[in-house]
Amino acid sequence: MKLTMASSPHNHSHKSVTRLMLTVIAACIPGVIAQVVFFGTGVLIQLLLALVCVSAFEATIMLMRKRPIWPALSDGSAWLTGVLLAISIPPLAPWWVIVIGCLFAIVIVKQLYGGLGFNLFNPAMAAYVLLLVSFPVQMTAWLPVTELLNTGITFSQQLSLIFSDFTTLGYSLDQLRVGIDGSTMATPLDTLKTDIAHSLTVTESMQKPVFNEWVGLGWGWVNLAFLLGGLYLLKTKVINWHIPVSFIASLSLCAAIGYIASPGTEPGLVFHLFSGATMLGAFFIATDPVSAATTNRGRLIYGAAIGLIVYLIRTFGGFPDAVAFAVLLINIAVPLIDYYTQPRTYGHGAVK
Questions:
Q1: Distance CA 209, CA 65 (A)
Q2: 178 Cβ partners below 8 Å, 6+ apart?
Q3: What is the DSSP secondary-structure string of 193-214?
C-alpha cells in the first residue's frame, strides 16, 4: 500500500490541494455573477487585477526563498486568496487598494508564517481588515448598477475610475457621489446601523432606496448565489457541514432573540442572513482548512463563536459587517479549541 505524506491543510478527500482550491474558486462563480449583475463589471476588473497581483507576489517570495515557483502557484491557494479578497471590496475601489491587500495577504499573512498550511489567520480576511481600517472611504462605497447606468458609467468608464480615479469625461468618484443619493453608496448594513444610531426605527430606515428589495439592493441575491455555491461545496465534500451550519444557526438564534427583545431596532433573522458577507463567510471564509478548527466538535464551537461575534459587532460594534473581524478573532482561539476538543484515544483519559 502506497502512503502519500503531505503538509497541511489536511482534508478527508481524494482530491489534490490544487483541485480543492479550484473547486472552491468555481463555487464562487454564482456569487461573482450576481455581483456583476448588481454592482457592475468593476468586479471582474478587480478579480483580474487580484489574480495577477497574488501570482506576482507569490512568485517573488518563492524566488527570494529559493523555492520552485510553479508548485507554489499551482496549488491554487494564492489564487483563492485573491478571488476572496477581490469579491469582498467595492468594485470601483482604486487599483492600489487591491494591490496593497494582495501584498499583505500573500507576503505578510501567508508567506512570513511559512506558506500554505502554516498561516494562523485567513489571509484574505486579514488583508480585508487592514484595508477597511486604513481606507474606510474607499472600502465602503458600493455603487449599485442602477446608479452606474443612471450616471452613464460604462465598462471603459469603470476601468478608468479604478486605474486613474477619473472617468474618461474627467469626473472623479467623489464628484459622482455629489449627484447620487449617498445612501446608495453604502451597504444596507451600514445604512441601517447609521439610521438606528440617529434614532430611526428599522421600518423608517428601510424606506430608503438601498432597501428597495427584500433585504437591500442586490445583497439578498448575492447571498443566495453564494449559498448556492456553498451547497455545491457541501455536496462535493470539499467542506464539512459543521462550520457553516453552526455559524448560520448561531447567527440566526442571536438575530431571533434580538428581534423579539427589540423589534423596533433589530432587523430580524432574514436581514442578518442575507445581508453583507454572511453566506460568503459561512461557506467560503470560515471553512478555510488551514486557519479553522480541525475537530468536528471544535468546528461546531468555531462556527458558533463566529456567528455570535458577527451578531454582536453588527449590533453593538463600530463596523456594520463583522465577518472578517469575527473570523480573525476566532482564528486566534483555534489552538485552544482544538486542544480541548480532541477525540479521546481509546484507553486514555480526557484532555485536562
A1: 52
A2: none
A3: HHHHHTT--HHHHTTSGGGSSS
Q: How far is CA 108 from CA 33, 59, 114, 125, 184, in A?
A: 30, 14, 10, 13, 34
Do the beta carbons of residue 190 and residue 140 sit within 8 Å? yes
In this prediction, the residues of the chain whose per-residue pLDDT falls under 50 are 178
Instruction: Determine the Cα–Cα distance for residues 194 and 155; give it in Å rounded to an integer.
Output: 31
- Assess contact for 229 and 280: CB atoms under 8 A: no
The C-alpha angle with vertex 44 and arms to 135 and 24, in degrees rounded to 5, equals 95
Residues 6+ apart with CB under 8 A from 6: 17
Which tens digits make up the pLDDT trace of 281-336?
Answer: 999 999 999 999 999 999 999 999 999 999 999 999 888 889 999 999 999 999 99
Residue 205 has what pLDDT? 84
In this structure, are residues 188 and 211 in contact, taking their beta carbons and an 8 Å threshold? yes
What's the pLDDT score for residue 110? Answer: 95
Which residues sit opposite 166 in a β-bridge?
172
List % helix, strand, coil for the chain (3-state, nearest 5).
Answer: 65, 0, 35
Q: Is the pTM of this model over 0.70?
A: yes
**Residue whose C-alpha cell reads 451578531 in the numeric block:** 311
Angstrom distance (rounded) from CA 292 to CA 301: 11
Q: pLDDT at position 173, please?
A: 60
User: What is the rounded CA–CA span in Å between residue 262 and residue 83?
Assistant: 38
Asked if 304 and 248 count as a contact pair (C-beta separation under 8 A), the reply is no
Calpha distance 328→208 (Å, rounded): 32
**CA–CA separation, 320 vs 194, rounded Å?**
9
| 303: helix, strand or coil | helix
Read off the C-alpha cell for 225: 448565489
- pLDDT reported for residue 199: 85
The 10 Å Cβ neighbour count of residue 67 is 11
At residue 264, the pLDDT reads 85
